[in-house]
Design goal:
It is built from six helices and five strands, in the order E-E-H-E-E-H-E-H-H-H-H. It is of the alpha+beta class. A hairpin with a 2-residue loop joins strand 1 and strand 2. Helix 3 packs across helix 6. It binds FE2/S2 (inorganic) cluster (2 copies). The site of one FE2/S2 (inorganic) cluster has 11 residues, from loops.
Amino acid sequence: MNIELELNGQSRTFEAKKTDSLLDVLRQNGYTGAKRGCDTGACGFCTVLVDGEARNSCVVPASKASGAEVTTIEGLGTQRDLHPVQRAFVDSTALQCGFCIPGMILRSVALLEENPDPSKAEVRKGLSDNLCRCTGYKKIVEAVLDASDRIDGAGVAADGGTRVENRTTVGEDAGGTTSDCAGGDCR
Ligand code: FES
Ligand code: FES
């Protein structure tokens, strides 16, 4: 079957099996910023924005996502023009292995869109569906609070960085540094 998505600002059509999840479709087509962890909706590594809402893409049937606006980490910013949340994560060194970071950043974008000036407790609660095996969360929470200050309530668009047009795979600008994880390049 065909799945039609407004993906990172571009109309795209993908082939999918009936049993495919949104995560399957994304990763099969080069959007590897969304990570596969538990594959059961329990870790948040696969978080993307679906119609502006943070969703665990591993438990979203691809058929149900058809027609939706989907934002992955590849659509947020670029290596040269990071989204403010990505920039805050890098500047706060809020990452170690980076595997959880694309999902964590997208969940943070949705959180700040809903609550531009969250308290520390609200950030912790808002990110509670996203696990991290490495950082202990402290720096991640600091990064989100820092991003909140940077954005200053001006509205966190899902495409806050410079949008990359006609981009189909994350590998196109893979740089290989640790901070690239904030852009989804640590596969
Ligand atoms: S891989 Fe989707 S929630 Fe864990
Ligand atoms: S899982 Fe390694 S940085 Fe979060």
